[in-house]
Each structure stands twice: as C-alpha cells, then as structure tokens.
Amino acid sequence: MKKVFLGMMAVSLIFFFAACNKENDQKNEVPDLVEVELTITPEQGEANQPVTMEAKVTQGGEAVTDADEVVFEIWRSKDENHEKIKVEHAENGIYRLEKSFPQNGTYYIISHVTARDMHTMPKKEFIIGEPSEPEDQNTTDSMDGMDMQGKEK
C-alpha cells in the first residue's frame, strides 16, 4: 500500500512540474507583433469631399478585432492643432473613419493602435486639393534620425 501511495505521489509531482514548465514556456514565447496597414482613399482628395481612412490591424497574419484603442490623429501641415478621433472596429480587423476636409493642403494622419499589450503608430501623408508646404522631415518622422532615447544621432 505504501508503494502504491508513493508511486501515485511521484506521478502527481511529475504532472505538476510538467504543467508548471509548460506554463513558463508559454510566458517566455515572444508574441507576433501587432501590425497596422494605414490607407487613405483617395490619397489626393478634394475639399469638402469624403476621404476614407482605414487602419487594418493584424497579428501573425490574423485580423485583430479586439484592439484596446484605435485613435486617428489628423492635422494640416504646419498646424499645431491636431484632431484626435477614436475609431471603432468596422470589419475583419479594419478600423475606419470617413471625414471631409474644408481646406486644401497637405495633411498627416497617425493611427495610434493599442492592442494585445503593444502600441504602434504608423503615419501617412495625404493631399486635399492643392498641396501646401509639407512639414520638415525631422518633425514629422518620429524616430528617423534619432536613437532609442529620442536624441538626435
């Protein structure tokens, strides 16, 4: 009887440690990055005509339909006022906004996407009517020309 009990204890401990080891292995796995494909249609729009902005969010090639937050930050070149609009999931990992712009010019959009403990911020330029003077490259590309601490290289 004692041998049976010790045998059962040994088997139980093996299963316990195997389960713990599997859990630790899963914690150490690096998840696929959340990727965002930002599109503007049309990229050359007209004043007071709708423009469709979409952020297609994927992870490991699969649609992310449960992002924690998707915010489109939109502004006209050289304008200090940036409009931030929260965007909801439309379909198949696509977060969509349709918006009209009353003023011609060069515009920028950054999609701030927070999903699955990751944050990504792709940026695009688009034109409404006639382009205006674009922003300086150093101020519009957040990390180009900078090291990891945000200091110029």
What does the model show?
The strands form two sheets. Strands 2, 5, 6, 9, 10 and 11 form a six-stranded mixed β-sheet that branches. Strands 1, 3, 4, 7 and 8 form a five-stranded antiparallel β-sheet that branches. A hairpin with a 2-residue loop joins strand 3 (50-59) and strand 4 (62-63). The protein is 20% helix and 42% strand. The relative contact order is 0.18. It is built from two helices and eleven strands, in the order H-E-E-E-E-E-E-E-E-E-E-E-H. The longest helix has 27 residues, at 2-28. The protein is α+β, with helices and mostly antiparallel strands and 153 residues long.
What proportion strand?
35-45%
Report, as a whole number of angstroms, the end-to-end distance: 73 Å
Query: What does the largest sheet look like?
Result: 6 strands, mixed
Helix and strand sequence: HEEEEEEEEEEEH
